[in-house]
Amino acid sequence: MVVSEIQHGKLQDTQLSVALLDAKQPCAGATGAGQGYIWLAHRDPASPSWPLARRSKATWQQLAAAAGSSKLGTAMEWQENGSLLLATSADEVAQLQARAAMLQQQGVPGVVLLSPRELKMAEPALKLPTGSHGLLVKSDAQINGKQTAFAMLEDCQQLAAAAAGGSASQPSRLLLGLQEPVVGLQPLGGGAGVEITTQKRRVRARQGVVVAAGVWSGQLLAAATGQQGWQQLLQPRRGHLLEMQPPAGMPRIHTGMMELSYTQHYSSSSEQSHGTAAGNSSSSSSSSNEAVDITFTATTSASGSLLIGSSREFSGWEALPDAAIITAIMQRASCFLPHLSGISAQQLMATTRVGLRPFAVGGLPSVGRVPGLPGVAVAAGHEGSGLCLGPATAELVLHQLLGLALAAAAATAGGGEAGGGVTATELLAAAKELAPERRLAAMAAASR
Ligand SMILES: Cc1cc2nc3c(=O)[nH]c(=O)nc-3n(C[C@H](O)[C@H](O)[C@H](O)COP(=O)(O)OP(=O)(O)OC[C@H]3O[C@@H](n4cnc5c(N)ncnc54)[C@H](O)[C@@H]3O)c2cc1C
């Protein structure tokens, strides 16, 4: 996803030529599995990723509006269907109230606390313990990440073809190398650019290279820089997401939803504590002994499928569906949506999506120039937020590597704010925390 955004922005806004090199094909990684939540509800305003999320969400919204009913617009399946966090105990209800106040204070539109009765009326499919509450954020949205990535690539191919004007002698502005793993990156010195070696050829990038290879970026950068810390920084965190037709008689789910405990993955304190656990391990095998985390999420896709999630585990580099995990997700989901009970893992194996989230020790992505590799930037480590954070990540990388201007935040005709109200200065301040040398140093400090 991140690479699609970068590619899209770069071809659209400049006269540069772009080479997109992928070990497999677009969406072979985590992007093919993502649920597509473009949410603020579960995030922590104290995290440096907050301004990226706000700005990205606004960019997605503008992109969807501009794309309209074009092929890209249709593929995006942009739905402003809102988000719903579910609190099922007195302690969680108190947390939910505090979160509602925090989001309102941040100026997030459409934040509403739902009483048990209002919750039941909003989502009749839910069956929750007495006293459960919901936090509805009406302005949260979702996309179809996989379709969006493919449609963006198609847009770029069309732009490149148009620029070549159908002339065979005119070199295309887009070189697409699929099934072509990058195996080496070598700065050439003297302003000559960077040489990229793939299993098939060498490509010279005069202006710069962005390594946006998800969790695999760690291996690539460790080999290119000789700094093994890159392999420790980025870790595969496998996730399952189940896709199915809603069972007969089940009321439609209107909002995207998740249980409140999901927010633990996005708190600033979690960013610190995960760091120590995963940072101690090697990158080629299971990176910690953490048990599989199953947290209930559910939404309806634009085409009417139910998307039910999800799992999180450090279990190595395998990205195949596991029947035991599918069963555990369904058991958890049935506690919230009883119509789902009785559906077996075997019925869901073929439509289950599995991806390796690019977990970064410290909980923050690395975005910016790579120390020791002139002309090379990285954009990786977005864990469970790469679809949401893609647009601001792309903006930052293109600014840092190519000097492209960051748009100022300004009021839009629709009454919203371009950039979600996040100014270029605020985005650059957040970027300091995401700088690769900062992320590597934070990891080293946490594992001491
Ligand atoms: C179950 C699940 C649910 C999720 N839900 C959400 C959600 O609701 N909202 C959200 O924002 N995010 C969500 N995510 C997270 C999101 O999908 C990821 O953060 C995002 O897709 C990461 O994108 P990426 O481009 O960095 O990496 P990837 O999508 O993993 O792409 C990496 C690419 O690099 C290629 N590659 C690997 N090695 C090389 C090499 N040597 N040379 C060239 N290419 C290489 C791969 O083939 C792949 O195509 C979810 C993830 C999962 C697994």
Automatic annotation (TrEMBL):
Keywords: Oxidoreductase. The keyword Oxidoreductase applies. Gene3D superfamilies: D-Amino Acid Oxidase, subunit A, domain 2, FAD/NAD(P)-binding domain. It comes from the Eukaryota. InterPro entries: FAD-dep_OxRdtase, FAD/NAD-bd_sf. The keyword Disulfide bond does not apply. Residues 264-288 are annotated as: Disordered. SUPFAM superfamilies: FAD-linked reductases, C-terminal domain, FAD/NAD(P)-binding domain. Residues 264-280 have a biased composition (Polar residues). Signal peptide: none annotated. Residues 15-397 form the FAD dependent oxidoreductase domain. Required for the assembly of the mitochondrial membrane respiratory chain NADH dehydrogenase (Complex I). Involved in mid-late stages of complex I assembly. This is FAD-dependent oxidoreductase domain-containing protein 1.
